[in-house]
């Protein structure tokens, strides 16, 4: 992932997740004042649905939201997403999506910058290297840019930004899954190519983590991706004669 600082922060974050999901927050001693998150549909709490405006969308209809909120909530789920459980464990309110209040919100307990369909790598990467066109609703770079814009407004100056992030938990991901989903979703694309650019996906996530550390964050969670290469639809569309 990069420097010793980055590696230490990620190791600490793994321990923090284990504590959050298995213990009462009062017992674990976690006292984060704010919680910030980046990611894709597994984390998004309403940004994508906000950006599509007032038009009709299946995401605005049941069964989305039916089991917990009893109505569509902007989450790509019939209930909560994982970031909601983290917030609950921290004793914080559910994270609001950042985009609706990017220019004005104070986000006293944090914000969620994740957007459904986001990629870790920018679309220019795929176009330049593979002549492959992808149009993600957002990218990790765009989410970080929005995060920095919000920080400059609610905690102007390096000292204030660092102080705010010192008391915050930052979730970077899950992100990167769509970098493979867009490719595997096209049956004409070679099955081996994603393995070529996998290191670049990992490197971009690592660079984002380092950016957040440089801003002042001390505790960062980096969730892993699913084994996307094992998705049955992708295995069927990209068949191989190699049993392994």
Number of individual domains: 1
Classify the beta-strand content into a percent band.
Answer: 5-15%
Q: Which percent bin holds the helix content?
A: 40-55%
Largest sheet: 4 strands, parallel
Q: Give the low-pLDDT segments.
A: 1-16
Instruction: Walk across the major sheet and give the strand order.
Output: 2-1-3-4
Secondary structure tally, helices: 10
The mean pLDDT is 89
Structural class: alpha/beta
User: Whole-Å distance between the termini?
Assistant: 29 Å
What is the C-alpha radius of gyration, as a whole number of Å? 18 Å
Report on the architecture of this protein.
The chain is of the alpha/beta class. The protein has one domain (31-238). It contains ten helices and four strands. The protein has a four-stranded parallel sheet. It is globular.
List keywords for this structure.
lipase activity, Lipase_GDSL_AS, 10 helices, 4 strands, SGNH_hydro_sf, signal, alpha/beta, single chain, 244 residues, GDSL esterase/lipase
């Amino acid at each position: 992932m990069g420097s010793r600082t980055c590696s230490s922060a990620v190791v600490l974050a793994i321990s923090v997740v284990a504590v959050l999901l298995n213990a009462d927050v009062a017992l674990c001693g976690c006292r984060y004042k704010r919680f910030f998150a980046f990611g894709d549909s597994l984390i998004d709490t309403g940004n994508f649905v906000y950006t599509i405006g007032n038009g009709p969308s299946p995401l605005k209809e049941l069964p989305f939201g039916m089991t917990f909120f009893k109505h569509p909530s902007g989450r790509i789920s019939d209930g909560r997403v994982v970031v909601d459980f983290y917030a609950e464990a921290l004793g914080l309110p559910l994270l609001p999506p950042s985009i609706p209040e990017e220019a004005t919100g104070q986000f006293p307990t944090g914000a969620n910058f994740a957007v459904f369909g986001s990629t870790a790598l920018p679309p220019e990467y795929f176009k330049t290297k593979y002549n492959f066109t992808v149009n993600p609703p957002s990218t990790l770079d765009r989410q970080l840019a929005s995060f920095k814009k919000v920080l400059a407004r609610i905690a102007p100056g390096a000292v204030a930004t660092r102080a705010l992030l010192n008391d915050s938990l930052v979730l970077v991901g899950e992100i990167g899954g769509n970098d493979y989903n867009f490719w595997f979703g096209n049956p004409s694309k070679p099955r081996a190519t994603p393995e070529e650019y996998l290191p670049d996906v990992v490197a971009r996530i690592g660079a984002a983590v380092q950016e957040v550390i440089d801003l002042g964050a001390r505790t960062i969670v980096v969730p892993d991706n699913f084994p996307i290469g094992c998705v049955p639809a992708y295995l069927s569309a990209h068949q191989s004669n190699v049993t392994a």
